[in-house]
Specification:
10% strand, alpha/beta, five-stranded parallel β-sheet, Rossmann fold
């Protein structure tokens, strides 16, 4: 019994430590930009964009003009995560409230629905070489949320949506390569969401970064891009973004 209590105590301490680390990361989001040279271009998403802000910075340098940014580390695509209530859907609503004239959106989302629970005892069994039905169900729900958000954007008059998918993670503080089957399934479902949104026939592009990002482009946490990774991601987005400006 003593061993069980000691084991549970260790698990609680580990859990609290992970929460503290994730919460700290949520505070390490690049500042929002709510007014810019190009107010009709908006960036929303999770910590791949938000943690360092370098993708946004690199795109701003390429464009020679600024655009709005509402990305938040720890964000779910829809709903409140353990880290933040500022989901990607909430970010979009905030951007629309600030200035509803939105022509182009650059975004990501849906990865934290897998990543955050996987760091808390993996209740959906997403760390598996053979993807579990419970993990697929979580990602299938993300697909529904993605289609709903895309349809809303279309109905609101957004003309262009550039959705950046996820690259393979590496072994690190927040990730393990056993999550990569979930990454693959998730990118497949996100690409399908981009293709299947039906509200408006606007311009929607899914960018798949998996062939381009290597381990040296990822921080020691196993998830977030280094400066070189951010530059690669910006360079993937820019050829799609440039003609839309």
């Amino acid at each position: 019994m003593k061993r069980l209590k000691a084991f549970l105590s260790v698990r609680v301490v580990v859990c609290l430590l992970v929460i503290a680390i994730f919460a700290g990361c949520s505070l390490l989001s690049a500042p929002w930009i709510r007014s810019a040279t190009m107010n009709n271009v908006v960036n929303i998403g999770d910590s791949i964009f938000a943690l360092s802000g370098m993708i946004h910075t690199d795109l701003t340098a390429l464009a020679g003009k600024s655009f709005r940014n509402y990305c938040v580390s720890g964000a779910y695509l829809n709903g409140t995560s353990l880290i933040t209530s500022n989901s990607v859907s909430v970010q979009y609503a905030t951007a629309k409230s600030d200035n509803s004239n939105i022509k182009t959106i650059i975004m990501d989302g849906g990865g934290n629905e897998v990543l955050i629970p996987a760091n808390f005892f993996d209740p959906y069994d997403c760390k598996s070489s053979t993807l579990s039905s419970s993990c697929k169900a979580v990602i299938d729900d993300v697909y529904v949320d993605a289609v709903n958000l895309l349809n809303q954007m279309g109905n609101d008059g957004v003309k262009n949506i550039i959705w950046q998918g996820y690259y393979h993670v590496k072994n690190g503080l927040f990730a393990t390569t056993s999550l990569n089957p979930a990454v693959d399934y998730g990118d497949t479902k996100l690409a399908q969401a981009i293709a299947n949104a039906t509200a408006v026939s606007n311009n929607r592009v899914f960018i798949d970064p998996r062939p381009y990002i290597v381990n040296s482009d990822i921080l020691i946490d196993g998830v977030h891009p280094t400066d070189s990774g951010s530059q690669k991601l910006a360079n993937l987005i820019w050829p799609v973004m440039q003609p839309l400006l």
